[in-house]
Amino acid sequence: MSEAETGRTLTYAFARDKGxxxxxxxxxxxxxxVRAGADPxxxxxxxxxxxxPLSFQPLDPARFERELSEHYARAAIDGGETEAAMDxxxxxxxxxxxxxxxxxxxxxxxxxxxxxxxxxxxxxxVKRRASDIHIEPHEDTLSVRYRIDGVLQEVLTPSRRLAAPxxxxxxxxxxxxxxxxxxxxxxxxxxxxxxxxIDVRVSTLPSRYGxxxxxxxxxxxxxxxxxxxxxMDEETLRRFRSVLAQPNGITLVTGPTGSGxxxxxxxxxxxxxxxxxxxxxxxxxxxxxxxxxxxTQMHHKVGLTFAATLRAILRHDPDVVMxxxxxxxxxxxxxxxxxxxxxxxxxxxxxxxxxxAIQRLRDMGIEPYVLAATMRAVLAQRLVRKLCDHCKVPxxxxxxxxxxxxxxxxxxxxxxxxxxxxxxxxxxxEGRLGVYELLVVDQEVRQLIREDVSEDDLEARAFAGxxxxxxxxxxxxxxxxxxxEEVLRVCRKDES
Length: 496
Description:
- The protein is of the alpha/beta class.
- Helices cover 36% and strands 27% of the residues.
- It contains 20 helices and 19 strands.
- It has a 7-stranded mixed sheet with strand order 4-8-9-10-5-6-7. A 7-stranded mixed sheet has the order 13-12-14-15-11-16-19, sandwiched between helices.
- The chain is globular, with a radius of gyration of 26 Å.
């Protein structure tokens, strides 16, 4: 009897409610973890169900929850043979359509191979800190990839025959139309893994060999950080706090998709939400719930756009407004009108640099004098992967590297490279670090904006005495926290 088989003799619901979990099996004896206060009668029931001699190990509540999640999710993965799932397409049509809005991923006794495989994929993605799951059919195979620390990694390549049952199962979970395969669809799955709430945004898209599915995993515990936890250097953090203390004007956060803009905005809102302000947000979609803040979801099909909703909420007397993204001239105009009434606004734009955000707004059609009067600051950011502490390898910095990263040529200095080990899944990296540049609109920058100077001239003046993204990332290379290659992958070298 394998460990997974032993685990399935106790259902997840029974183990969770009674405070019992199978830890391991040594010969004929099964080690049973017992949460403090467990019912002795339940232990006798477990003994009858397992049918083996038991040894017992007391567990505190925190460790019990961890062991419970690890054991039952691992059993789901071990049981999810892909070859068996190939024959499961017919069974998908009989799946119950009335799935609870928030269901525990590990709860229940459904052993359908496709269900176990999907459960295992989601659990493994959460365990490996993946932000997205990509399921994409090709001519002969099905590619399953995780985006971990901003980089896609292939984890599974089963036969393409699995595409239809997997896609159908995900659609059922996200309450999408499983018969409609010609148009893109978007949905959402709310679930939990051992008491840990996970929100999954699901998007499907027709492709040459079938529908591809992308699932974005949103974990509230990883998003709601304080400003001090974002990884800003002391000077940038001090200047950014000073900007947030301003009574009016627009502050923008810019960067590519997946650079942490939403996390930074939520951290800024937590500073502004002191209980004495009416803080309102417009988001598409709402990624995380924020306590004490009014959040509104956009619905473009019924006309609930950023611009239209922003006009509406101005009648609700907001003190602070956060607009998820400035995408067009109409939204930009309303946001600037709001901030010109003496109240602060926060938003994002997609540009490559802080100075580029000013140019982007000018290209949209915002007049330079409006920008100069209303703009307070632009924070550009990136995320660089952090070297794995278990396997990073030192090397003597070359002359070019020393010159690039501000190390005196005569000084002996070691930089580090990735190697790969079991702890980091052979990638050489584990976790990410924030890199920032902050353009504060002071009197001189304001005059340059009025004069409509070029982006390069604006950048040269604004960062004459402050870090650009590249200069900000130097500290991580010199300290051995990331590699030269990683910084060059994420930041432009000519920003130095």
